[in-house]
Amino acid sequence: MTRTVRSQDFVHQELSGAGQVEERTVLSETVERVRCRWCGATDSVEIVPRPDADSPVSGSSSESPTGRS
């Protein structure tokens, strides 16, 4: 999947330079292209929204596989 995500992230930055996203809010998301992992087809893939896609994910501070948090 190729997608564009605009998000607001709060990052905990260590003195060593390592950073970790502590909180992410997805402001917008656009799916640009979906490609089949096995055959590479882009014209025969159907995008079906999950029934719970608009529900908030509790206890999760990282981005979910759908890009919603």
Question: Topology of this protein?
Answer:
Layout: E1 2-13, E2 19-33
Antiparallel strand pairs: 1-2
Features:
2 strands; two-stranded antiparallel ribbon; 69 residues; mainly beta; elongated; 0% helix
Describe it for me?
This protein has a domain at 2-33. It has a two-stranded antiparallel sheet with strand order 1-2. The chain has no helices and 2 strands. It has strands spanning 2-13, 19-33. It has 69 residues and is an all-beta fold.
Model regions low in confidence, pLDDT < 50 over at least 5 residues: 59-64
The overall strand count is 2
Beta-strand percentage range? 35-45%
The overall pLDDT average reads 80
Tell me, what's the shape?
elongated
Oligomer: single chain
Provide the spatial order of strands within the biggest beta sheet. Answer: 1-2
Q: In angstroms, what separates the terminal alpha carbons?
A: 18 Å
- Secondary-structure element order, N to C: EE
The DSSP helix count reads 0
Radius of gyration: 15 Å
Mind describing the biggest β-sheet? 2 strands, antiparallel
Percent range of helical residues: under 10%
Structural class: mainly beta
Short recap of the structure:
With 69 residues, the protein is mostly beta strands. Helix content is 0%, strand content 39%. It is elongated and about 50 Å long.
